[in-house]
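User: Can you help me understand a structure? I only have the sequence.
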Amino acid sequence: MIVNASNESFRSEVDVEGKAVVQFHADWCGPCRAFTPHFEAASERDSSVRWIRADIESLDQSVLDEYQIMTIPRVIMFENGEPVKDINARTLYGLLEEVNG
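Assistant: Let's start by predicting it. Here is the structure, written out as tokens:
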């Protein structure tokens, strides 16, 4: 299951015990739309991870600056609330491998 994080809920969504994977995206972004089915499929296959989508249009600039969101889609894995890894995979199996590898 994917959670859609708003500006108000972003920090509480990623500040969880264990792994959380965030896809920073925008509705107008073609590459984001192409990647989303892989992200959705990964969330269905691995329920041990908290899967989060965050629309950059709804986030404060301070959040974007903190995580250095310069391009999208950008996927960051958090562990116990801390960012630990940029996920560069753009396929279902690549995404699952990077998250669980």
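Now, to help you interpret it: Strands lie at 2-5, 19-25, 50-55, 74-79, 82-87. The chain has one domain: 2-95. Let me know which part you'd like to focus on.
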